[in-house]
Amino acid sequence: MSKIAKLFKGSSSSSSSSSSKSKHHRSKGGPSPQEAIHKLRETEEMLTKKQDYLEKRIEQEIMIAKKNGTKNKRAALQALKRKKRLEQQLTQIDGTLSTIEFQREALENSHTNTEVLKNMGFAAKAMKQVHENMDIDKIDDLMQDITEQQDVAREISDAISGPFGETYDEDELLAELEELEQEELEDSMKSMGGLPSVPSSKLPSAKPSHHATTKKRVEEDDDMRMLESWAT
Length: 232
Description:
- With 232 residues, the protein is mainly α.
- Helices cover 83% and strands 0% of the residues.
- The chain is elongated and about 160 Å long.
- Pfam families: Snf7 (PF03357).
- Its main location: cytoplasm.
């Protein structure tokens, strides 16, 4: 055998061994959910086409039985027998399709749940990585520093907005002003010779004037005249 033949033989054997290894590894790991769902859909399509074919065959056998009902009973009976066998196959396919459909839906739900859990786990890892870079003690210190700086800023604001220069007690100033007013009042009374004396005797009561008495008498005369006019 030539060297070239040996070389090709060795390469072909190595490639066949590698392909067999890959097939063995794939069969060991099993198909992916997508591959299994795809295979189930292909099977559903194949069985659906088989259903359509059987339904057409059943219609044909019914036409043959009707055509040969009175002329050729043997042919009509054979057609009905074939129809029965076809109906049995159709019933079996219906049951198989229901099973495959249920299996496909369960696999799709499982695949969806797996993807959801995978994404949730990915998000949890990302959140954990973010929290690993955070120190609770440092956060507490930072919040304490912020609070202290806010207090300092508030004190500075109060100091700036307060009155500038010396401050006095307003109540004390008002009391002093009241004393000065009292002293000024006393001085003015002294300069006027003091307060006038209150008389000890009782003052005489005022007598009604002559004009008031005359007016009252005129009013009484008018009233009497009005009464007399009413009486007549």
